[in-house]
Amino acid sequence: MFPAAFDYLPAHSVDEALAALLKHGADARILAGGQSLIPAMRFRLARPTVLVDINPIAGLAYLREENGALLMGAGARDFAVEVAPFIKERYHLIFDAAAVVADPIVRQSGTIVGSLCHNDPAGDWGVVALAARAEVVVRGNAGTRVVPIDDFLIDSFTTAVGEGEMALEARFPTPNERTSGSYQKIERKVGDFATAAAGVQLTLSADGTIAAAGVAIGAAGPTAKRVVEAEKILLGARPSIAVLRAAAAEAKEISDPIADTRGDIEFKREMAGVLVYRGLLATLKRLQQGELH
Amino acid sequence: MTLIGTSVARPDARDKVTGAARYPADLVRPGMAHAKAIFAHRTHARIVRIDSTRARALPGVLAVLTAADVPYNRYGLISSDQEVLCSERVRYVGDRVALVVATNADVAAAGAALVEIEYEDLPAVTDPLAALLPGAPLVHPDLATNLLLHQPIRKGDVERGFAEADVILEGTFTTSWQEHAYLQPDAAVAYYEGDTLVVETAGQWLHEDRRQLAAIVGVSEDALIVRYAKIGGAFGGREDLSVQTLAALATWKLKRPTVLVWNREEAIVGHHKRHPFHITTRWGAKRDGTIIAVETRSVADGGAYASTSIEVLKCAAIFAHGPYRVPNVATDAYVTYTNNVPSGAFRGFGTPQAHWAAESMITRIANALEIDPIDIRRKNLYREGDTEATRSVLPPGVSALPVLERCAAEARARFEPRPPADSSSTKRRGLGIASGIKNVGYSFGYPDQSTATVELIGSARIERAVVRIGVADVGQGVSLILRQIVAEKLELPLRSVAIVHEDSAQAPNGGSASASRLTFMAGRAVHAAAAAAQANFNARTGTSATVQFRPKPTTAIDRITGEGDPNYCYGYVAQAVEVEVDITTGLTQVLRIISVHDVGRAINRQQVEGQIEGCLAQAVGYALTENFVSREGAILTPHFSTYLLPTTLDMPTEIYPIIMELADPQGPYGARGMSEMPLVPFAPAVAAAIYDATGAWVNDLPMTPERILDAIDAARERLTTAAAAAVP
């Protein structure tokens, strides 16, 4: 189907984009990669009357490390993350996810910040951002806010970005050398919505116990979910099969998926646990932990 | 011989890649009226009242047509049991009730929303087994039964066979609907050229479409032309008419050009699907692996209208025991009406469903007897001169065994020995093999024919030729194949042979693009016409010859015993696959496919390989991902976001299409049809590989991750129970 009619406004600066958003209010949407928005418009699930295109804005597609964080500009594409050597080397969780977002064609256009703002229940980047404890920089007329990801993801297709505001940047804390992570997803075919997904990031202390833990699951409720109880179990624990299983069981516990052609509720909840377990195992393997018992 | 077997490039390839090719929806011209069909979206209901007053009042609405506007409101490929617009009763969600014609598409859609239709819901039957029970709601009350056909087949004495068997296994299998998912959803334009009504569309058989359309609008067949634009795939899905009837009706009624284009959801809800089957089967074998008895009961869901159900059912029935020589056979196949989406033709035409059960069973018998699955096939496959279950001798050219041997050799050469299972991994690999058989051409006494005209032009010698034959190039490339055959016969360069094939008034009836029949049938027709024209070539007057080709006649099969001579040609296939199963998530990846086909002669090798690879994508979908869900008649998967087609990225990187050329005695240059064959045994080959990997058999198609996990759980339980029972 064709989208409903809309006006197209190319913005050449952030201020220009913000002015357009302020003027058109809730009727306006930002066009970045368009990989979620355009299909939604074609199904007429979204009917913005104005599209503010931020692609013409110079200097928005950056990926750089600064002040202990990886900064991804609103124009940064999935593909850029997938092929950046420094991300592959240090940001294991992010690298894993970048390689499995949708399909290669979508990754050429889709943006990380755009995906966070779209906040699809089955989206990948919300899960990654929760596990990595990311923040999102939001700018509006009243100034700039830095919103922790837990406060940013509000509900399906709803975020902390208010009317007249736009998300400018996502910030992921730079992992130290005792930190690693893993992203696990199952899908019925390449590019399908996730059947289940999990993101995990762990930091080990010098004595081998877990000093920091981030665990999140996707396609398991209205929005990506932090598995708080799993993080509690992991924090301070010495990694073992029993600890991993206990953490994974918490993911299954809070998973609240919908039944669809990708699987029934019982299957998807089971998979949430399986994927958290796999993610933890893969992370510890990357941290060169010996055989777990 | 230079052209036969050469991979001549497709003349339509560039236009299709660049977007220059014109499919039916590209034929819309300014000023055409746009039609919008109103679907019932009811499983079974009586139409109480249709009020189109408000729709007609909408500016731009030209007409709202209902059953009363249709001169002859019946159509269908075999029996005319479908109405163009429903008069009193709707039988499934995709039934069309009214047609809004307007000056543009938006107004047509707005008008459709204003048509008020009052229904009285009727009791519905959506389970084919329930449809056969006494007291079930009747889909067509005038028929007094939901049973479309019961086809028994009896050969030998099945009870004596089982009494002599050393091993007897039983299995129950199900398959689901499959959607054709052709690239271009159903679309048609209709207009007048003088007094002649022209319908431009995509289809599979020009002259049959013309017959049905002319009857609907009440004109002679001479007064109606069907033309095919580029056809974005068909796969059997365009054998039944859909939008053509409505575009023709609107143009005939309003005397102005009309276009009707369905979107994907309308196409999925509106046209027929592959038949779901419920199959219970019992196999008996001797200790050495000889199959001596097979008893099968299968029930197919025909949906709301007959379509080609009875022919699909008979094909499934004659292959209930696969491609094997079985002395004692008892088959009872049933197809019923239900209030589900109609079932009809789809690549394989009943044989993938039959093989799903048969090929799974023979591997299980092999396992039970601890015989290699290749050896048991080698022992039982049809040989030249063997008798079918219908008690007729197989058409000559039986190559089932050499095809299997080649497949086994290729598998040995290309599949590495399985790596030892890594206990820390949840991934398990397995290999599977399966054989298949499928008829080429129309069966069961249908007077199959193909008619072609070849015109020769030249001064002293033949300089060029024009081939006229009405055939659908659905994407398989038949127009190039036929030119290659004529050019070869006349010793002309390919560029000197033109073809006119897409206009029912400009070319004789070449027959349907179905049953893998056009290379064989139309190939023989154009070859014979070229030969006849060549023999009478006269440079002064020009020469034209028209020839009708008829293959060896077939006969109907008996309604009680199944006795008869059903087919004139078979295609043979064997496949080996390697899969990887994640035993924790159930996700299964096909890693390698070897698909061996005896095509008699590959007229164009590249096209044959293209058919194999494309068909395998459809087969991967049928086996694993395409889960068409219908609940109480409502279709829950009407989009590609819910009905999951495999894409390039889901296909294995290693596909080996192996072409064997054991000449068919009747085919042109020995060629026989092949385009359905890769779908025939593929799903059971995958099931056998999953069993090899996990020890679990899946009985239901598609093999979704959940079903695979359930099967693994059940297999574990059986092992545990067996172990417990072994404890004294």
- State which percent range the strand residues of chain A make up: 25-35%
Rg of chain A from C-alpha positions?
A: 19 Å
In which order are the strands of the major sheet of chain A placed? Answer: 4-5-10-6-7
CATH class of the largest domain in chain B: Alpha Beta
**Beta content of chain B:** 15-25%
- Please give the share of residues in helix of chain B: 25-40%
The total tally of domains of chain B equals: 3
Number of helices of chain B: 17
Structural class of chain B: alpha+beta
Biggest beta-sheet profile of chain A = 5 strands, antiparallel
Separation of termini of chain A?
Answer: 55 Å
Oligomerization category of the chains in this entry: heterodimer
Per the CATH scheme, the topology name of the largest domain in chain B is Aldehyde Oxidoreductase, domain 4
Overview of the structural elements:
- The complex is a heterodimer of chains A (293) and B (728).
- With 293 residues, chain A is an alpha+beta fold.
- Chain A is 35% helix and 25% strand.
- Chain A has twelve helices and 14 strands.
- Chain A has helices at residues 14-24, 37-42, 78-83, 85-90, 92-98, 104-109, 112-118, 125-132, 149-152, 228-234, 241-254, 265-286, and strands at residues 7-10, 28-31, 50-53, 63-66, 69-73, 135-140, 143-148, 153-155, 158-159, 166-173, 179-186, 196-204, 210-218, 225-226.
- The model of chain A has no long low-confidence stretch (mean pLDDT 95).
- By secondary structure, chain B is an alpha+beta fold.
- The longest helix of chain B is centred in the last third of the chain and has 22 residues, at 705-726.
- In chain B, strand 18, helix 13 (478-490) and strand 19 form a beta-alpha-beta unit.
- The A-B interface holds A 1, 103-104, 186, 188-193, 195, 260-261, 263-264, 267, 271, 274 and B 263, 584-585, 587, 625, 627, 629, 636-637, 641-647, 649-650, 704-706, 709.
